[in-house]
Amino acid sequence: MAHFARFITSRIIALAAVTFTAAGLSGCAQAQTSAPRTDAALMAAYSASQSGNWETVRALIPQVQGNVLAAYPEYWWLRQQTLDPRKPTPVTEIDAFLTVHRGTYLAERLRGDLVLAAARTGDYDAIRSYADTTVTTPQVDCGILLAQHARGEKVSLKRVNELFSPGDVCWSLYDRLQADGVMQTEDFIVQLRGQLENNSLPNARRVARYVYNPVQLKAFNTLVDAPMPWLVKQADPPRDRASRELIVDALSRLARTDPQVGYAYFERNWMRQLPPADVAWLRNQFALSAAIKLDPVAIDWYRAGEGAELTEYNHAWRVRTALRQQPVDWRLVLRYLDEMPSGMKEDPASWVYWRGRALIATGAVPEGQAAFRSIAEQFNFYGQLAAEELGVPTTIPTTAPPITPQELAAAQYNPALQRALALFKLNWRTEATREWNYALRTMDDRELIAAAKLAHLENIYDRAVNTADRTVRQHDFNLRFVTPFRDQLVRTTRGVGVDESWVYGLIRQESRFIMNARSSVGASGFMQLMPATAKWVAGKIGMADFSPSRVNDLDVNLMLGTSYLRIVLDDLGGSPLLASAGYNAGPRRPVAWRSTLPGPVEGAIFAETIPFTETRDYVKKVLSNATYYAALFTGQPQSLKARLGTVAPQQAVDATLIP
To answer: What pTM did the predictor assign?
Structure first.
């Protein structure tokens, strides 16, 4: 311990020698000179950590001193010690690390790790010592709440359920709150119904343990997988609360698997045997399932189930279902919006926008315009639409004064940003992004623009975009909407015949201009092409020298991506809205969604009612981006509404495109 403490002291001196400030250029040169000698040790420590050779990691810690990432091996070693229950917690070393690195991302992250370790052993005093971390996760937050409860402090159940996320510590919090009588069976039933509504079956099975005894739990596990066979065997009306809840759970599962048949069965066999509150909740479960399938019967079921307690997710779909009716019953839309929880209807901007539309449609013009004004200065899909409702098209705001050399130097010598840049150069993108984002927390607009400028100079375009996106009063849209590789993209888009602004808007959403971006499902490159799609398009356009290994090549990726976009656009009647949805979800899906429309709808309503959450969000952002890019490129005001257009119903035909 004494040796390690002396090492820490010497380390403070070493770090001070290479602390970079705008005036300390010699420190920067020193670090660059020493980096080659320490990089090898850093990489060796990383390899050792990956293979679990922790003694080697510890031995290498002195050898990385002077490297901008010197804290990382030490953090890896300390974190591992906290996770190993067989070893005593190295308190002295931990305190020294937290002192030396006070206020850094790694120090705050270690505090969170210590909260988790203490929560698992029930050391609530330790949790209290480290609970002020600014780097939290749901599990860390649950650990802090667990310690507060253990010390006798009142814990809000609303707060518990807002923070809850499946994981050991949050489950331990539920265990303790149940054992102490703070959470009752009814509280867990609300959670169980929410998990069933989200189709989160592993979590539903876990929550069910708080509701049912072993015999009932066995029945629950059966009905989750096969609700109808289980239901038809229930000859007697439910006699107690748990038996009734089993019936409700089974019917909610039936709503998801076969809403039309299930709803008729529910009304015929169970509606009169259940309390009105359960009946209303189940009607809304059937309505939700039908709404996501774009079945027009959903609105009737929602009307029949009015008065039930709904999740935010179901509130949203009830409004979307009302918007999809032709003609739109704006009074019903307004009523459903007003019944949303207060925090939900004020944020995000979507519900403010639709409330403004509903207010104006029902004669409350001043109130509707006030709603539009409250979001019209937001640089997003609904902010743009609200501004257009007020007669203000999309334009580029006045660019902030140029960043001075002194402001840029302050960003260049910011220690946290330096660590992030070093991590990006090692292609440790996850850690790099965390370091970068942590550094931005307290920055003002000028500092944010300088950091975004630095990222752009380093060709880290995703950080340039995300950082510039954070400014509040001063803006630089050339950084928010970067245009790397402009010559190649213009040449390709003109040759293929697609809108350059739209392609840039799509790439900004798909990959944030990360050249080697790869999604969890295997999509690659700027335009995030799936392997099968890339091969198919290459054959379609006659790319003779195509090979899967070339998908990440810039020119190849742009040619294949824009060509595919053109094919999808042509197949979907020239609608950028439908083609954007098809690019994300596969071209067959917007064909199917369009076929269910009761009549022509404005593009904003079609976008709002896309049944896939990812695609719905994606389409809005792509078209919002495209409108801003068009304003940048032309210098002229643009209309997002015009870009969205109108979507008319059209009978689905066999798609000729691959998924």
So the answer is: 0.91
